[in-house]
Amino acid sequence: MRISDKKAVFFDLDHTLWDFEKNSALAFETILTKHNVGVDISAFLEHYVPINLKYWKLYRDGKITQQELRYGRFKDAFDILGFTINNNLIDVLSDDYIKHLPMYNYLYEGAVDILEYLKPKYSLHIITNGFHEVQDGKLKNSNIHHYFETVTNSELAGCKKPHPDIFEYALKAANAQKHTSIMIGDCIEADVQGALDYGLDAIYFNEFNKQVHTSVKQINHLLDIKNLL
Fold first, then answer.
1. Which terminus of the chain has fewer CB atoms gathered within 10 Å of its CB, N or C?
2. Of the candidates 146, 169, 144, 145, which has an alpha carbon nearest to the alpha carbon of residue 158?
3. In whole numbers, what is the pLDDT of the chain averaged over residues?
4. Residue 112 — very low, low, confident or very high, per pLDDT cuts 50/70/90?
5. What 8-state DSSP symbol labels residue 220?
6. CATH architecture of the domain with residue range 20-103
7. Per-residue pLDDT for 228 more than 90?
8. Burial class of 91 by CB neighbour count within 10 A (0 to 12, 13 to 18, 19+)
9. What does the pLDDT read at residue 4?
10. Using alpha carbons only, what angle is made at residue 190 by residues 45 and 204, rounded to the nearest 5 degrees?
11. What is the CATH number of domain 8-19+107-227?
């Protein structure tokens, strides 16, 4: 069923438009090779990916700092592999990873097509928990920054999704009304439930077809948005 009353569409960035896992893997391949870290990259990523998600949840919930996030996800992955590495090198790798990550520009299939479809009909915006400098680089290097009128990040808003204040901040920045706006993202907790709890309509980008309540609007491919908006 089409949603007919919307004027503003708010997107999450990582894992929704910007292919985080693919770009992250390329960044790791670059920095681990550059610093001669002798681990099997695929084995490292196998452990790092779920660890990173765990650390982001802790960060989102305000239980760890940005620095603890950046250090801990590396340290835990190396520890599981039984790879001995000193703290200074972990800090160097962490910084280098953040510098290299935005350089890669793979987007999800259909991302540009759906933005082209939506742009004439709606004002488009980003709400991200990512860090300003990194997210700005991702948008520019993947050449999608021009689609968005505003970009709200957790540093600007002073809080992270799913906190209602970040949605409030984003709507004010966009000069948008809650009842004529909608949020689209891949995280059921931060993007979807966070928006719904705030009173903002939401669409779940359910890439892996996870079981969710039938009341949740969802898509499995970005182009499926055309069936709703």
1. N
2. 169
3. 96
4. very high
5. S
6. Orthogonal Bundle (1.10)
7. yes
8. middle
9. 85
10. 90
11. 3.40.50.1000
